[in-house]
Design brief:
This protein is 30% helix and 26% strand. By secondary structure, it is an alpha/beta fold. It has two domains: 278 residues, 3-Layer(aba) Sandwich (Rossmann fold); 88 residues, ANL, C-terminal domain (GMP Synthetase, Chain A, domain 3), CATH 3.30.300.30. α1 packs across α3 and α6 crosses α7. It starts with 11 loop residues before the first strand and ends in a 17-residue tail after the last strand.
């Protein structure tokens, strides 16, 4: 185990471990020293881990909960920590499918204070809050909501007696709502679908404790959105639009009712621009980022505007006359399944190694439960069982195709690009 004395501001600590209470404390303790936790899916295969870690060159990689607890014990106690001097370095992929770390850099004290104040003022986090964690903590939004709650003096629930985060189970979540009386919750539409399906069988619990239920990560079907509005207390439900790189908008459901389909207006100290259909966002210094060790990718994401630096993740949309944003499409080829981003090229690269595969294209199919379903259309003489077995060995569960289709040829442009929309 590396000692904290060997960690310096700007260093990275990779977290390939399940979520836990100690995980949250460690994230805050590291950031207070300007050291950047890199939350990663512990289910990544060895080849996936190697690809990510080679780029990030972490000073330390933790792979067990015991290592998290050990390192945490060597760091300052909670009441002696300062503000986070940056954001956790979450990893995202580009259109090439090669993962890159989103790096805020070490912030000065004023920027660090602004980073905390923005979340607290938007969502109203305070010492009386009880945040219910539904999603794995290696995702940016649940980790952000949980740590912001702790920084405000609140409580986080959603862990077993051993302090570890269990998998999502509607019956367990229902019991936690009844027993813990949470006030806040971040979720993706797939969570809501499963909760309502369970509540249709057992009855809706008392939801009156909630003052904030925020959903994001995937488009929310209008019928589900209306059910959320009807089930939870008035003024409590929100949708926001953002990405691993940064946050764009927030929208209370009552605004959505007046403007169906909107994802809201620009958040505090931001300005939205739409040019040639592409969404750009001007952000304050505390919200800026680079792609770690990827200057060309960073340069492509940013440009100067009269209002200040603006970034894009390639999503498409439009603004109405009041500044409300409407999404018209996610970045090209991206699949969002249950709030998880899946990049087709990465999956195609894995499946193309299966003997008998001549050509393969991975694309999205609408799915009522998950928003989008990862689907592979394959050309060649190969059995579906062989494809599934290979995917299970080389891809984390969200990336594995749920459906395989077979074709004689893939539709392509004259330049050889697969026409995924036709699939």
């Amino acid at each position: 185990m590396t000692s904290p004395a060997s960690l310096h501001p700007g260093d990275r600590v990779a977290l390939l471990v399940p979520g836990s209470r100690d995980y949250l404390d460690l994230v805050l303790a590291l950031l207070a020293d300007g050291v950047f936790p890199v939350p990663l899916d512990p289910r990544l295969t060895p080849s996936e881990r190697t690809g990510v870690l080679d780029d990030l060159t972490p000073a330390l990689t933790l792979t067990t909960s015991a290592e998290v607890t050990d390192l945490l014990a060597q760091l300052p106690a909670v009441d002696r920590r300062g503000l986070p001097l940056g954001r956790p370095m979450h990893v995202t992929s580009g259109t090439t499918g090669r993962p890159k770390g989103v790096f805020s850099g070490v912030l000065d004290p004023a920027e660090a204070a602004a980073l905390v104040a923005e979340e607290r003022e938007l969502w109203g986090f305070g010492p009386d809050d009880v945040n219910l964690v539904l999603s794995p903590l290696y995702h940016s939004a649940p980790l952000r909501f949980a740590t912001a709650t702790l920084l405000a003096g609140g409580t986080v629930v959603g862990f077993a007696e051993d302090g570890l985060q269990p998998g999502f189970d509607p019956a367990t979540i229902t019991r936690l709502i009844q027993d813990e009386r949470p006030t806040t919750m971040f979720c993706v539409p797939a969570h809501l679908q499963r909760l309502f399906a369970h509540w249709d069988e057992v009855g809706v619990p008392d939801l009156s404790s909630f003052r904030l239920v925020a959903h994001a990560g995937a488009p929310c079907p209008p019928a589900l959105k209306q059910r959320v509005i009807d089930a939870f207390p008035p003024q409590s439900t929100w949708e926001f639009y953002g990405s691993t790189e940064g946050q764009f908008t927030a929208c209370r459901s009552e605004e959505w009712l007046a403007r169906p389909g909107t994802v809201g207006r620009a958040r505090r100290d931001r300005r939205l621009l739409v040019e040639d259909g592409v969404i750009w966002c001007v952000v304050p210094p505390a919200a800026r980022f680079s792609y770690f060790n990827a200057p060309e990718k960073t340069a492509a994401a940013w440009r100067e505007t009269p209002e200040g630096p603006a970034f894009t993740v390639g999503d498409l949309g439009r603004l109405d006359e009041e500044g409300y944003l409407y999404l018209s499409g996610r970045r090209e080829d991206l699949i969002i399944t249950g709030g998880v981003n899946v990049y087709p090229v990465e999956v195609e690269n894995v499946l193309s190694a299966v003997p008998g595969v001549v050509d393969v294209a991975v694309h999205a199919v609408p799915d009522d439960a998950w928003g989008q379903r990862v689907t592979a259309t394959v050309v060649g003489d190969v059995e579906e069982e062989a494809l599934r077995a290979h995917a299970a060995t080389h891809l984390a569960p969200p990336k594995r195709p749920k459906e395989y289709r077979f074709a004689a040829v893939l539709p392509r442009t004259l330049t050889g690009k697969v026409l995924r929309r036709e699939l």
